[in-house]
Amino acid sequence: MLELKNISVAYKDKKVLDDLSLTAKPGEIIGVVAPNGTGKTTLFNVIANFLKPGQGEVTFLEEHTYRSEKAELYIRRHLSTFPEQRDLFDELSGVDHLKLYANMWSGTTKHVQRVIDELEMGHYAKKKAGTYSLGMRQRLCFAMMAAADTEMMLMDEVMNGLDMSNVALISRKLLEMKKEQKLIFVASHLLANLDLYADRVLFLKDGDFVHEQDMHSEDDAYIKISLAREQYEELRTMYELPAGHLYIADHLLCIPLAGMKAEEQTMWIERLLPWKEQELTIGSLGTVEYYEKYYLDSK
Amino acid sequence: MYRKYWLFEMKLLLRQRKNWFLGLFLLLFFPIFFLVESREEPVSLESQKHYEANMLVAIFQQFPETERENPEGAAIYNNLTEQASLVNYQLYYLSEGRHEDYVENGLMLNELRLELHEMGNKWIPEHLVYPREETLKEEALLSYIQANDLPLEPESTGATHYLVAGLGAMSGVVFYMFVLLAGSEILVFDQRHRTVVSDFPISFFKKISAKISGMFLYIAGCLLLGLGLGFWVASSESGSGNFSYPVLLYWDGGFEAVSTMEYLLYALGLMMLVMLLGLIVSVLLNQLFRNAYANVLIGLGLFLLPDLLMGAGVGASFLQLIKYVDFAGVLDGDLAIQLGADGLDVQHVALWLALMILLFALVIFMINKLTYTSGRKVRDA
Question: Are residues B199 and B310 in the same domain?
Answer without folding.
Answer: yes
